[in-house]
Amino acid sequence: MQPFALTLARNGCVASTVEFPGHGSNAAPMTGGLAGTRDVPGPYAVVGHSMASDIIVRHAQTHPAVQASVGVSLFAPSITATTPPARH
């Protein structure tokens, strides 16, 4: 995901990468959300691949500071910009 983050950063967005719990080298149990990630000041973009693409779309729906979202290989094509936000 680093090329996406670098491109976004070069175009004025805050770029931060996250390795979700239960993925890659993060041995923490999988939670399936962005809870516990750092708050990002100002406008930012989110990028997700596969299952994370669904999470970033839902995150963008409820966080007005998200200026762009990029879903790569959507996990559930039924999740779109018009899908109602998840209820917690």
Please give a structural write-up:
Strands 1-2 form a two-stranded parallel sheet. The protein contains 2 helices and 2 strands, in the order αβαβ. The model has no long low-confidence stretch (mean pLDDT 75). It has helices at residues 2-10, 51-62; strands at 44-49, 66-72. The chain has a domain at 1-16 and 44-77. It is α+β, with helices and mostly antiparallel strands.
Present the secondary structure layout.
Blueprint: H1 2-10, E1 44-49, H2 51-62, E2 66-72
* Overall form: globular
The pLDDT mean sits at: 75
The overall strand count is 2
Q: Uncertain runs with pLDDT below 50, 5 residues or more?
A: none
Major pleated sheet: 2 strands, parallel
Order of neighbouring strands in the sheet with most strands: 1-2
What pattern of helices and strands is seen along the backbone? HEHE
DSSP strand (E) fraction? Answer: 5-15%
Helical proportion, percent range: 10-25%
Query: Helix count, per DSSP?
Result: 2
- Please compute the radius of gyration using only Cα atoms: 13 Å
Structural class of the helix and strand makeup?
alpha+beta
Query: Roughly how many Å apart are the termini?
Result: 28 Å
